[in-house]
Task: inverse folding
């Protein structure tokens, strides 16, 4: 653990904004990109189940196709990197056991010790009213937060993008066949020097309207 | 912008885990807590609408009541700080105008320049199939990611908690009357020296199963 100065964290979060126009000539250095990928892998999730897949789309023709399914927003093709955040579309006993097996592999936990956890997870996913899409999407957004935070701390720009045709993404990427659904997209790279949004002040409600003390 | 070393970021994310037992005698220093609050205020959200409220619960009697609505999990009373992340339960023209007014106040943007944005937001929220709960909850989880990330970078422990009776929380905190709904809880403080989970290795699927390259 190497504590980071809080003022640096906050300065960098204030520096961050949702880039509208990337400099298409600049690429994120490999070591920084590796850190972003590692950070989203390390994101926590409900029961630790990681109900997600992160699709890193490097193929430029594919990015051009996805741009059409994204209201033609330029970030899809012009950012250094594009990631499609997909959520698991169902949670079956197989998903639960994949996680249990992984715990055993990493921690050498005896399987019988995990029986209660397994039953609890299976119970949660078969409970009436359980909405796998809502549940998994929440986890994916937490990972999106880790993505944006990591980029900002390294001085890498990014833009989270909800304005996409998720069903069309699923088709283009053939995600449904794998049991995943497009949830949200993130682009990362470096802002263009003439991005109109870059110089504008960040808009937040006053703290006293957002934070309530009891 | 003060770039942070990627290896420090990742070390601290690896150090982070979901604390099961807090040291109830240790409090988060004020400056660190202020940074955590500021970080969640700075979290990005869809259209920048910040459809959330963060309830910081200091009252110990109230925390005891909430613990009963949380499967009696000890973190609710024993952590240094408890935050209830609530989402906006509806998005009306009033919510949209609150945001538009704030943009004008901060950026001096002429109102007519924002007319198109206003129409777009109103259209999104009145579109058939728009699910305000799903949409707002996703944003809240992104902010939860910012909370956990900030704590970890400062060496502050935390635990995100979904295992709560959200409807009961709403009643206890009278959130529905304000137009909000309990979404998830986060506790923060310092791990107890005998927390059983602290020494266990983090469990993640192999990177090649989580990240797919195209």
Result:
């Amino acid at each position: 653990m190497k504590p980071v100065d809080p003022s640096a964290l906050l300065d960098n979060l204030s520096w961050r904004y949702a880039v509208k126009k990337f400099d298409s000539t600049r690429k994120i250095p490999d070591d920084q990109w590796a850190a972003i990928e590692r950070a989203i892998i390390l994101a926590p999730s409900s029961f630790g189940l990681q109900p997600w897949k992160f699709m890193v789309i490097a193929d430029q023709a594919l990015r051009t196709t996805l741009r059409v399914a994204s209201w033609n927003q330029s970030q899809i093709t012009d950012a250094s990197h594009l990631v499609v955040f997909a959520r698991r579309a169902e949670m079956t006993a197989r998903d639960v056991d994949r996680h249990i097996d992984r715990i055993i592999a990493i921690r050498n936990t005896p399987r019988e010790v995990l029986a209660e956890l397994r039953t609890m997870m299976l119970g949660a996913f078969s409970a009436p009213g359980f909405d796998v899409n809502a549940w998994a999407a929440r986890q994916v957004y937490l990972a999106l937060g880790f993505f944006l935070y990591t980029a900002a701390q390294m001085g890498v720009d990014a833009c989270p993008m909800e304005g996409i045709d998720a069903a069309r993404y699923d088709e283009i990427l053939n995600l449904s066949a794998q049991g995943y659904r497009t949830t949200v997209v993130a682009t990362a790279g470096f802002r263009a020097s003439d991005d109109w949004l870059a110089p504008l002040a960040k808009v937040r409600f006053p703290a006293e309207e957002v934070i309530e003390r009891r």
